[in-house]
Amino acid sequence: MDINMTVAGQVIFVFALVMGVVCYYIGRRKSQTPVLTGLLGGVLSLIPLFGVIYLVVLVLKKDVGENEIATAKC
């Protein structure tokens, strides 16, 4: 079965858009610059492995609100 390069490019492009949106929504809680987080997630998703790794790192990052509370207690 042959895969047309046009179809493969379209799949990667749609994957990058979806990952950019997902990274934006997660970045709203996890960072102070969610637009930059979403943009970086979309660009890194042009190579799908990098996009998935970035998403995992973003999910494992602590929320911004938790960091502010932790520094206020110290």
UniProtKB/TrEMBL annotation:
Organism: Aliidiomarina taiwanensis
InterPro entries: GT87
Regions that span the bilayer: 7-27, 39-60
Family, as annotated: Belongs to the glycosyltransferase 87 family.
Protein name listed in UniProt: Uncharacterized protein
Membrane topology summary: Multi-pass membrane protein
One annotated Gene Ontology cellular component of this protein: plasma membrane
Pfam families reported in the protein's UniProt record: GT87
Localization: Cell membrane
